[in-house]
Amino acid sequence: MFIELFGTHIRREAGAPPVLPAEVCRTRTGSLCTLCHASWASYSAEARARDGALAQFWAGLAPGAPLAPLVTSPLGRHYRSVSKRKAFLSRDEVRLGLIQGEGRHRPVPVRACGIEPEQHAAVYAHVEKVIHTPQVRPLARSLRYVIVKGSYTALVVIISVDRIDGAAVSAANALSRGLTGACGTVRGVLLYEDPGSDRYYLGGRNAPPRRSVRKIFGDTDIRLTFGGRSFRCPPLVFSQVNASLVDALIVEASGMLELTAEADLYDLYCGYGLFSLTAGAAGRRVTGIERSAESVEAAARNAAARGTTNARFLRAEITGSSLGGILSHLRRRDVVLLDPPRGGTAPGVIECVAAARPARVVHMFCNIDIMPAELERWRREGYGVVRGVPFDMFPGTDDTEVMVLLTRS
After folding, report:
1. Is the pTM of this model over 0.90?
2. Contact between residue 360 and residue 406 where contact means Cβ atoms under 8 Å apart
């Protein structure tokens, strides 16, 4: 497993701990947070460790295929464009804390996280400051998470609660007025109803496609610029956690796809149209496929906003059975890009894509430890690894994003 290899390398490379500002990576009691590497390793040491672990991991995974050096993050720290805090009860007071993944263990009440921008810390500090004031107190009883999403200059705050009712809306309005005054980068606030039936902070993959959402203030769409193009992304739609590295992803994907004016791109798990409308611009036609209705609608709006006429976006579960009809018109010169969630592709997806015999496939892995199983499925279907490029999409964590080019063997 890559995580074990990386752990060995970073312990070897860490050296002297970084000098941190007084409140960064520390709890209210002054103890050091150890949920990520930012509190005890410099980014340069971490990047060296990741590169070494990747070389060792790749040698056993795709011998003979080249692996590029790690594409480091322009922001090694304070990079996250998405962050969250879980609400928990401490001495009869609601506190906000970091958690590892989406587990049920006790959150860590960190004041300012080393891999989050300072603007995020200001949002969480303000919520904690006012949550027990008379006007905002009704939120304290049902608060689950506070989520911050956006660019590095404009933020949307999502207040996740067990139930949206009149009292919650009134309290959220009071919270919003103070929040936008105290944190100038906040452009929108919304309430999100989540009864807590699953462990995910914005609903799991099997959650209902739309949950109850109430706009409280402002423009709640997230505005992003990547690849020289502007995007609007609804706050409940997936967006990249490290906006500083997205342009590099687009450039590499475009180079791997080698899309020509005669070829079509099939973009699986297309989200709000990031790759369809950047890397896909050189092609004859683009077909984006995504299970989320909100994502498909956002992708279509982004295409219309720039006058793109060669892209269509389909809402469909991405399974082996559903893809058969969609890929039935794929030609041997066409290309496919897959950017699935952490759990990887569903059974039959790789096999269905391979059966259509596209010229080139670009498969992106945000969970490096599923690569051996997924690449073995490609191998069995006649596709081999041409090259891989790792991206430090998640500095401070054990995760690494890897983009892989595959062609028919």
Report:
1. yes
2. yes
Task: Write the DSSP string, 323-354.
Answer: HHHHGGG--TT-EEEE---TT-PPTTHHHHHH
Domain-terminating residue out of 220, 255, 270: 220
147/265 same-domain check:
no
What's the token pair of residue 189?
Answer: 């606030």
Q: How do residues 174-228 score in pLDDT, each as one tens digit? A: 999 999 989 999 999 999 998 865 555 665 444 444 568 999 999 999 999 999 9
Same domain, 207 and 261: no
Taking every pair of Cα atoms in the chain, the longest distance, rounded to a whole number of angstroms, is 67
Backbone angles phi, psi at 18, to 5 degrees: -70, 155
Taking CA atoms, 202 is separated from 14, 162, 181, 353, 363, in Å, by 34, 12, 26, 30, 25
Q: Which amino acid is it at 224?
A: L
- Domain of residue 25, residue span: 1-76+242-409
Q: What is the 8-class DSSP label of residue 134?
A: T
What does the pLDDT look like over 353-393, one tens digit per residue?
Answer: 999 999 999 999 999 999 999 999 999 999 999 999 999 99
Residue 123's SS3 state is: helix
